[in-house]
Design goal:
The protein is of the alpha+beta class and 157 residues long. It has 6 helices and 5 strands, in the order αββααβββααα. The strands form 2 sheets. A 3-stranded mixed beta sheet has the order 3-5-4. The termini are far apart.
Length: 157
């Protein structure tokens, strides 16, 4: 008898069943983890999903950047609202590059619109995404407050 058969149990078709396959599980089509451990429900730990949707993680990243810049919002006299939109609505004859953000004056102050899809499509890694979000927000705030982006940046150089 084969030694491998003694190590595991046999299936009803005569094959050896010895547990999960070695190595990483397949991530088909780049969608990330699937199954009861990744989806919210009674079988997942604390019913928390293993990953966040890209919209939610982008909003959290923007929130972290704005929290780091909070000291400037309390000092500057102009009210600035930062809003995240999916993508800009562009006319059909648009031929230029899709903008990453827009700063506009409103009756209450200023509004900065960040466009999530154009920003994320220009980034390859999470670190690139973080750097681009920082630079876009700093550039737009510097434009609104008439300052240098380097003066606003609290990150160590």
């Amino acid at each position: 008898m084969d030694d491998r058969r003694d190590a595991g149990t046999t299936s009803r078709w005569g094959g050896v069943v010895s547990g999960p396959r070695p190595g990483r599980m397949r991530d088909r089509r780049g969608r990330g983890a699937r199954g009861p451990m990744a989806l919210p429900g009674p079988l997942s730990p604390r019913s928390v999903p293993a990953h966040r949707p890209s919209r939610e993680s982008f909003d959290l990243l923007v929130g972290e950047v704005l929290k780091a810049l909070e000291q400037h919002f309390t000092v500057e006299p102009d009210h600035v609202e930062v809003v995240v939109e999916e993508a800009p609505l562009l006319p059909p004859e648009w031929t230029d590059e899709v903008p990453l953000s827009i700063a506009a004056a409103t009756a209450e102050g200023h509004r900065i619109l960040l466009f999530r899809i154009p920003i994320t499509h220009r980034c390859l890694t999470d670190r690139d995404l973080e750097d681009v979000v920082w630079s876009v927000i700093l550039d737009r705030l510097a434009e609104v407050w008439h300052m240098s982006p380097d003066d606003l940046d609290p990150r160590p150089r």
